[in-house]
Amino acid sequence: MKVLVRIACLSLMVLCLFVGSPAYASSPAATSRSAIDSEDFANENFAGESFQGAEFTEVNFRNADLSETDLRGAVFNSCQLQNADLHGANMTNGIAYLTKFTDADLSGAIFEEAILLRSTFDGANIDGADFSFAVLDGTQQKKLCAAATGVNPVTGIATADSLGC
After folding, report:
1. From CA 18, how far away is CA 46, in angstroms rounded?
2. Which of 1, 95, 114, 135 is most exposed, with minimal Cβ within 10 Å?
3. Residue 152's pLDDT band (boundaries 50, 70, 90)?
């Protein structure tokens, strides 16, 4: 049943990519475009900002502070988020493809119904993160299950349960 729900969510999200309306990022570093490509935001502070629906391609967020950010519906394609702070960020319905979350702080973050294919999470802190109905590569899901601890403070869902461990 979970597999069917995940496939349905994936199909719906892929469909939305082709029929969605333009999105605009709202932050000090944002431009008026809906897509931000090949920018270097390493070590920048975006804590509490809204990037809802923004599209990032090959953007460097290494060591950036994205804590408590609104990333609902945001798209990260081939982005670098190593050592980034995403504590308490909300990436519900977002997409991260070929994105590196290596050693990132994802504690308390929400990834409900997110598509996280071909992304890596090695060494990431996922304490209290909620991955409910997220689509992950099997290898990454197993690695995340091995590190799953805590309960999300917003959704009340245990990290291990949200990953289907």
Report:
1. 28
2. 1
3. very high
Are the CB atoms for 100 and 80 separated by under 8 Å? yes
CATH number at residue 15: 2.160.20.80
Total domains, the chain = 1
Question: Do 137 and 157 touch, CB atoms closer than 8 A?
Answer: no
Domain boundaries, position 154: 1-165
Closest CA to 59 of 74, 84, 42, 72: 42
For residue 130 the two structure tokens come to 């909620």
Structure tokens at 109: 């973050």
Write out the DSSP string of 16-65.
HHHHPPP---BSTT--SSSEEES-B-TT-B-TT-B-TT-EEES-B-TT-B
Distance between CA atoms of residues 142 and 20, nearest Å: 32
Residues paired with residue 120 on neighbouring β-strands, in sequence order: 100
* pTM, to two decimals: 0.80
Structure tokens at 86: 């995403």
Contact 96, 115 (CB under 8 A): yes
Q: What is the CA radius of gyration of the chain?
A: 15
CA torsion through residues 149, 152, 153, 156, sign: negative
- Angle at alpha carbon of residue 49, lines to 92 and 109, rounded to 5°: 35
Which pLDDT belongs to residue 55?
97
